[in-house]
């Protein structure tokens, strides 16, 4: 964060760079782990994950400095929302990741559909987070942890329904169908 209280800008804090660091961290985890470093004041990303037993986000991302919030089934009540807003607006986290997991024991689960619903809920319920995403200051990303193969899969955001193409059959052009 700079002297004006605004989150720092620059390529090192861009959402895409943060995502690349998380992916690199997950690669370290996959190839044999990495030391878990103490968290600093400038987390690479804020991660919302399920409170069910599963590896900590910092472990899954190979020791990358992340700001972790865990709630049962990715619920985003006021406490979780406030914590995530703090990470994005005060600590300047350039990326917010909703991390579900395939083996979720909760009734609504926390698989891809739940992750997509949570991504939408974060923006709907928090004007601060929505503004940070709209301005490009913070990226919003979904992932799901698969316990069986110890792998993270990306969750594609729900696409807004495509505009319906109205295809009207044109009446035959009499001029073109007319015999010469
Ligand atoms: Zn769960």
UniProtKB/TrEMBL annotation:
Its cofactor is Zn(2+). Pfam families: Pro_CA (PF00484). GO terms for molecular function: carbonate dehydratase activity; zinc ion binding. Binds 1 zinc ion per subunit. The keyword Zinc applies. Belongs to the beta-class carbonic anhydrase family. Catalyzes the reversible hydration of carbon dioxide to form bicarbonate. This is Carbonic anhydrase. It comes from Micromonospora sediminicola.
